[in-house]
Amino acid sequence: MKVTLFVPCFMNTMYPQAGMSIVSVLERLGHTVNFHEDLFCCGQPAFNAGYWDEARKVAGPVVETLAADSADAIVIGSGSCGAMLKVFYGDLFAGTPLASAAVAVGKRTWEFSDFLVTKLGVTDVGARFPAKVTFHDGCHGLRELKVKQQPRRLLEHVQGLELVEMRDSETCCGFGGTFSAKFPAISTAMGEVKCAAAVQTEAEYIVSNDSSCLMQIQGLLDRQGKPLKTMHLAEVLAHQ
Amino acid sequence: MATGSSQQFKTDSKRVAGDLRHRGLIQTALSKYETSRDLQKSAFQDWQGARQAAAERKWDAINHLDQYLVEFASKLEARGTKVHWATTPEQAREIILGIIREAGARSIIKSKAMTAEEIHLNEALEKAGYSVVESDLGEYIVQLRNEAPYHIVFPAMHLTRGEISALFTEKLGSAPTENPEDLTMIARNILRDKYISADVGITGANFGVAETGMISITENEGNARLTAALPRVMITLMGIEKIVAKLSDLALFLPMLATAGAGQSLTGYNSMYGGPRMQGECDGPEQYHVVLLDNSRTHLLADPEQRDALHCIRCGACLNVCPIYRNVGGHSYGTTYSGPVGSVITPHLRGLQEWKHLSQASSLCGACTEACPVKIDLHHHLLQNRRNAMAQKPVRWEKMAFHAFGFLANRPALLRALIPFGRLAQKFQWIVKGGPLDPARAWTETRDLPPIATKTFTDQWRAKKRAASSKEPVQ
């Protein structure tokens, strides 16, 4: 299958290993991966802040490029940016010349774990990762895209991996994009609750399908001096 | 510029969010609620189907409010109830004060009504020289503390038994006790006298049934029944959105409200009120007044995008699951309606620019929407409020920043050229990290920031492509 990978801005600049891991997992499964170097961001920060004109300036080229792309699927390693393309582009471009293209792009877009499990029917990607991990559900992936079991099916098939659920795994980590900077005290409190739940599991890794959540969680854990590490799902699946 | 209410929210929410005692208290209280709520939800044959049905019933009621309200009022009037229509809080207060004056009343007993909080009724009554006592235990406690309710269903959720005991000792002179039954009895002994001596009883309404012209009140303490039955004049203050079309709708809404709101199969007492004491009846008030309150609900009705916010049955489920509410507490909001639904509707009821910060104070996690028994699209409404607020009055530096971001995002070569400068800046960030000079302080004060990768994804992708093409055999 021909797959076009969309790499979110923060993943490109701060977590490139997560993006490269998606490439490696997809190639290992025999798919051809393409990446548009010119696409940098889905436009969610401006969209969430209420600046829809500015969001369209960022998202417009994404829609145009991906609409012209003949790949069988567009894959994103983030539930949040995935939700932006799949759910919110329809609202953002409603009544504009890109309306139908935006909806069509959304329909071809898949969150990474959903793509593997639902679209490809793959649950065992031949990974090995001997560690105790807990999974954090990113809110956008969970509630906008209904991705809940897919990453767990994948993790269950990773050799040597022990998956332990944390209390309130569905509770928000407090990142929320610009919210984390606009209301740092609330965001931090939410993150502390999340970290405490993860620490309680005695897992070595917190795994998620959203690097943005992991940035928040790791940022707090590092400041607290906790040894727990965060890792994107794709990195676990790429590990052999 | 931060407005008064926005500044107040920032200050209070910051203080409460860092209060670990508060965090523990609310977590404990709500984890008990979660357990019983889930148990009760499982008693529904199909909870999701019930939510859908409830949303449809409320959609019908709200979209035909013009007909149902008239039907409701005329049925009530036919049984001798006086129905009053109040557009503004001032009008509602004047109507209620007028009824009280005309009745020659002196003391007033009141059961729980968020509409009364909304119009600051108690202050108005006290200012006019009347004594008014809250008969719901939680409301009575916060009234003694001179506080607003902390939660729309659990007004005193933020207090421990010890604090309530100390309050009763201070205000009522009772002996200290942490036994909940003893505490209830202390309040009950005082309240019983108040019911008997009160001339007027004021209640809220959980539902208004158009078909029969009846008010449905649901409660756990029996206090609303006494408030309604004992005084000679009864007044119900009801928001116009509380209408349901049919009596049979309550078969769905009453268990749903109890489940979502308090984790109960059914609330302890469910009563219907349809008018004053009729000839030959042995009890009930001599006069019954229903005051229908608009207070900008019609603004919300005029907004097709967010009209479903009028479906709200004030169960509080969205507050209970909201990680923002759980961390900042009910009082930080500074509004009558707190939590997600409060953040959605307050800008419509009291002004978008003044209250937009509540829509911004959300991670948009969507737990509220998932929990809402009548399927209000709460977290998407927060997004719409943000959009409307910024379209009306953008924050200039923010707009410029997003404009600049858009400029860069569309110029990948320039962006790539700038990334090394970002890396360089991060190398020296430790000097100011987390301090007042740190441009990323909002983040770094409490959290570490990951470094910009030495090789971005684009760098690594290009290297991979180069390596792949150099391996390809030359044609």
Q: Please give the largest β-sheet of chain B.
A: 6 strands, parallel
Sheet with the most strands: spatial strand order of chain A? 2-1-3-4
CATH class of the largest domain in chain B: Alpha Beta
* Cα-atom radius of gyration of chain A: 17 Å
Helix tally of chain A? 13
Domains of chain A, number: 2
Q: Classify the secondary structure makeup of chain A into a structural class.
A: alpha/beta
Low-confidence stretches of chain A: none
Largest sheet of chain A: 4 strands, parallel
- Helix content bin of chain A: 40-55%
Instruction: Give the terminus-to-terminus CA distance of chain B.
Output: 66 Å
Q: Termini separation of chain A (Å)? A: 23 Å
Précis, in short:
Chain A is of the alpha/beta class and 240 residues long. Chain A is 54% helix and 13% strand. Chain A is built from 13 helices and 8 strands.
Describe this protein's structure.
- The complex is a heterodimer of chains A (240) and B (475).
- By secondary structure, chain A is an alpha/beta fold.
- Chain A has 2 domains: 2-119, Rossmann fold (3-Layer(aba) Sandwich); 132-238, Rossmann fold (3-Layer(aba) Sandwich), CATH 3.40.50.
- Chain A has 13 helices and 8 strands.
- Chain A has helices spanning 9-14, 16-28, 44-49, 52-68, 79-92, 99-108, 112-119, 139-144, 149-156, 179-182, 184-200, 211-224, 233-238, and strands at residues 2-6, 32-35, 73-76, 109-111, 132-136, 162-163, 205-208, 229-232.
- A 4-stranded parallel β-sheet of chain A has the order 2-1-3-4, sandwiched between helices. A 4-stranded parallel β-sheet of chain A has the order 6-5-7-8, with helices on both faces.
- The longest helix of chain A is centred in the first third of the chain and has 17 residues, at 52-68.
- Chain A starts with a strand and ends with a helix.
- The mean pLDDT of chain A is 97.
- By secondary structure, chain B is α/β, with parallel strands linked by helices.
- Chain B has 3 domains: 1-43 and 320-393, no CATH class; 48-295, NagB/RpiA/CoA transferase-like (Rossmann fold, 3-Layer(aba) Sandwich), CATH 3.40.50; 396-471, no CATH class.
- Chain B has helices spanning 4-17, 20-41, 47-63, 65-78, 89-102, 114-118, 121-127, 137-144, 161-172, 180-197, 223-229, 250-262, 297-301, 317-321, 323-328, 339-350, 352-360, 367-371, 378-392, 396-409, 412-427, 441-444, 457-471; strands at residues 82-86, 107-110, 131-134, 200-203, 207-209, 214-219, 233-239, 243-244, 269-273, 287-293.
- In chain B, a hairpin with a 4-residue loop joins β5 (207-209) and β6.
- In chain B, α1 packs parallel to α17 (352-360), α2 runs antiparallel to α12 and α17 (352-360) packs across α19 (378-392).
- The longest helix of chain B is centred in the N-terminal third of the chain and has 22 residues, at 20-41.
- Chain B is elongated, with a radius of gyration of 27 Å.
- Chain B starts with a helix and ends with a helix.
- At the A-B interface, α1, α2, α3, α4 and α8 of A face α1, α15, α18, α19 and α20 of B.
